[in-house]
Specification:
The structure holds 2 protein chains of 2 kinds. Chain A is α/β, with parallel strands linked by helices. Helix content of chain A is 52%, strand content 21%. Chain A has one domain: Rossmann fold (3-Layer(aba) Sandwich). In chain A, helix 3 crosses helix 4. Chain B folds into 2 domains: 117 residues, 2-Layer Sandwich (Beta-Lactamase), CATH 3.30.450.20; 79 residues. Chain B has a 5-stranded antiparallel sheet with strand order 2-1-5-4-3. Chain B starts with a helix and ends with a helix. The N terminus of chain B is likely disordered. The chains are: A alpha/beta, B alpha+beta. At the A-B interface, helix 2 of A face helix 5 and helix 6 of B.
Chain lengths: 141, 204
């Protein structure tokens, strides 16, 4: 079936709208603006400020994407992924101020699909969320 | 030379700094190492007492001299500054550290004096090492500040600016364009800082 630009736009909007994002970040301003910006782009966003809250809320949130800071007040993003076990979302993005090869390798080993080094451009995150959308769509089809 | 004396002499040689051992009561030199004898102009090689009393003690500052004599009597550690002429006539500044040895035997009842040169590559190396360590600490501090503070705030601001641009464009296209340009500028600053952080990590 041939799709026109309008149909593609609708389809993209539909997949973006249906993407549920769980954001774990303890920096108040960052989490606030990230949430508002992603919501402006039609993502459904749930936030948690620490590992304990995230562990409690992620299983019920049925999120598609986890975006987590590595440095959390009560643990780290790597431990979070380990403790989530079967409740891990299908796509995960780590955020960290540290971006050495070791840090990136560790994030991969923990189960994150990507490791973003802070500060990063909003476009970089949006590009990864599009990747997650496409992945979800592929699985659904 | 007795076995004990040879052993003690070996110990002085191992210091790597000029050192003499003197009698507490008379300040007579019991022994010295090669560095000490090569350092000062020795007129009468066998007169150990003369070397120390005439070659070293007169160059101790008066206040330090009193402290040294007290230390000599009480056999307590002391740190004084001395200056004497080298074999080639140069005036050399030293920090002399004296401490009493413990024990009842002849070599136990003595004061050990070690001379630490003030102007020597040894100290320059220590200074350079401290300086280098200080620079590394400062680099770490800046790196941590970047990670925990500035980069985090800039990240929040970048998202906030994008959010604002998205809202403003609905009110006015021109204002939206300006907000969008501002967001782009902030974006560039973010990328610049990211490069800075990464290059500092590579250096560390």
């Amino acid at each position: 079936m041939c799709r026109g630009p309008w149909e593609t736009l609708l389809k993209n909007n539909f997949s973006m709208r249906s993407l549920r994002v769980f954001l774990v970040e303890n920096h108040e301003d960052t989490v606030r603006y990230m949430q508002l910006y992603l919501e402006q782009l039609s993502y459904e966003v749930t936030v948690a400020a620490d590992m304990a809250s995230a562990l409690r809320e992620i299983p019920e949130s049925r999120c598609d994407v986890l975006i987590s800071d590595i440095g959390l007040p009560d643990g780290d993003g790597w431990q979070l992924m380990e403790k989530l076990g079967d409740h891990r979302p299908q796509f995960a993005i780590a955020m960290s101020g540290y971006g050495t090869v070791n840090d990136q390798r560790r994030s991969r080993a923990a189960g994150y699909d990507h490791h973003l080094v802070k500060p990063f451009a909003p476009d970089a995150l949006v590009a990864l969320l599009r990747e997650a959308s496409n992945l979800k769509e592929e699985k659904q089809s | 030379m007795t076995a004990l004396r040879e052993e003690v002499c070996t110990l002085l040689q191992e210091f790597g700094l000029p050192a003499v051992r003197v009698k507490p009561a008379s300040a007579e030199v019991i022994e010295f190492n090669g560095l000490f004898s090569s350092l000062i102009n020795v007129a009468a090689p066998l007169d150990y007492r003369l070397w120390f009393v005439e070659g070293v003690l007169p160059h101790i500052a008066r206040a330090d001299r009193v402290r040294w004599e007290t230390a000599l009597t009480d056999r307590t550690p002391v740190q004084v500054q001395v200056a004497f002429k080298s074999v080639d006539g140069r005036v050399l500044d030293f920090e002399m550290r004296s401490s009493a040895s413990v024990g009842q035997k002849k070599f136990g009842q003595s004061l050990l004096c070690v001379f630490i040169p003030h102007t020597n590559p040894f100290f320059e190396r220590i200074y350079a090492a401290h300086l280098s360590e200080g620079r590394e600490l400062e680099r770490c501090r800046i790196r941590n500040e970047l990670h925990k503070g500035v980069s985090q705030q800039l990240l929040g601001a970048a998202f906030g600016c994008r959010l604002l641009a998205g809202k403003v464009v609905k009110l006015s296209e021109a204002l939206g364009k300006e907000a969008s340009d501002l967001a782009e500028l902030l974006n560039e600053a973010v990328l610049e800082l990211q490069n800075l952080v990464q290059s500092s990590e590579n250096q560390g």
